[in-house]
Amino acid sequence: MRPSFRTALAALLSLALLAPAFARGPAATAAASPAAAPVAAEEPAAPAASSEDDHAAVEAAAALAPEEIPPLATLRHAVVCPPFKGDAALGTLYRDELLRTLRSSPRVDLLEGDRALARNAPAFTYRIAGEIFDDAGQTYVSLQLVDAARREPIASFVSPASSNPTVLAQWIQVVRADMQRRVDALPFECRILRKQGQDSLTLDRGLSSGLRPGMVLQAVVAEEPLISPFTGEEFGRDTPAPLGSVRVFRVNADNAYARPLDGASVPRKGTLYAREF
Fold first, then answer.
1. Cβ distance 142 to 133 under 8 Å?
2. Do residues 81 and 181 both lie within one domain?
3. CA 177 from centre of chain
4. Structural domain span for residue 108
5. pLDDT above 70 coverage of the chain, percent
């Protein structure tokens, strides 16, 4: 039976309304939706940690198809870049260029403003310390990448500095390539917090880190320092051993919540963190 004119008109109007959303694409449609900001609701109070809502959230995350869960390679490292030491004008010029590069990196969560303060920053943060200095009549810019949690320098870079745009462009090109290589190699890490009366695990990273429901990380005990028997000084840290897998089921602005998967034994005491391997 042929559809009536009214039915056909309604179908055409529906397609016309849906067309702009498909033209923008799913990412733009989600961004335009007011409900897209929070991935899930706030973690319930401790007595309600095992409520029906929590179980529903866990089941929903577990039911996600693998292709719907973003890969761990999309997780972002927390990075702080304070003002450069030395010549203020030249330091600002080089730092501004570096900040633009950090903001555009898909693997970097640049902490700025109040987020960069030590009391607000997550436990695992990388700090880029820059300085402009003179040596033998030549001006240089130095960068040092430091693992702030372990207070360990990871890399350093020194180059001649100048306000000449060509020199600055060459410098940032080298820095950008080196940064990309390092952020891809460094594992994503976040602190695990256990709250009394709470069955789930609290992670100290949120939406800006790239965490999403359904992602699976490895719970790890903080590695022990390696002490030289000859000098008594620390020369490294033991290799972290995973305790088991935890699945993220809720992500807020500044934190996330996860539950151990079957077989994972997560102790209630000690310094714990979640990471990718």
1. yes
2. yes
3. 19
4. 76-185
5. 71
Choose the final residue of a domain: 158, 185, 212: 185
Rounded Cα distance, 58 and 80, in Å = 33
Q: Report the domain count for the chain.
A: 2
Q: How many residues does the chain have?
A: 277
Q: Is residue 31 part of a domain?
A: no
Contact of 154 with 146, CB cutoff 8 Å = yes
Report whether 126 contacts 148 (CB < 8 A). yes
What pTM, to 2 d.p., does this model score?
0.72
192 vs 40, residue with greater confidence: 192
Q: What is the pLDDT of residue 175?
A: 95
Same structural domain, 67 and 196: yes
Q: Regarding predicted confidence, which is higher, 143 or 42?
A: 143
- Whole-number Å distance between alpha carbons of 249 and 60: 8
pLDDT at 24: 37
Which residues partner with 191 through β-bridges?
273
Q: How many CB atoms lie within 10 A of CB 220?
A: 21
**Residue 94 forms part of a structural domain:** yes
